[in-house]
Amino acid sequence: MKGKIEELSTEELEKSLIDSRNELRKQRFSAVTSKLENPKKIREIKRHIARILTIKNEYKLGIAEKKVK
Predict the structure, then answer these.
(1) How much is the pLDDT for 26?
(2) Would you say the C-alpha torsion 2, 14, 52, 64 has a positive or negative sign?
(3) What sign for the dihedral angle of Cα 44, 7, 13, 64?
(4) Based on the number of CB atoms within 10 Å of its own CB, is 27 exposed (0-12), middle (13-18) or buried (19 or more)?
(5) H helices of the chain, where?
(6) What domains lie within the chain, and their CATH numbers?
(7) Are 20 and 55 in contact (CB under 8 A)?
(8) What is the pLDDT of residues 22-63, one digit of tens each?
(9) What is the pTM for the complete model shown?
């Protein structure tokens, strides 16, 4: 997860979304099978995914300008 997701291009946003969803899947699996080191990590990942989806929706609606690198 990079620092400022608003500065990422659409391709980088898509890659970050896929990576975050995979990480969330791994964290949920490990929460069921064993004890987590950091239980708040799941919440942080879910919020990161929500931020990415919000930015993508803003691009779609024309609220924000797309970043192209």
Answers:
(1) 94
(2) positive
(3) positive
(4) buried
(5) 10-33, 40-61
(6) 9-61 (1.10.287)
(7) no
(8) 999 999 999 999 888 898 999 999 999 999 999 999 988 888
(9) 0.84
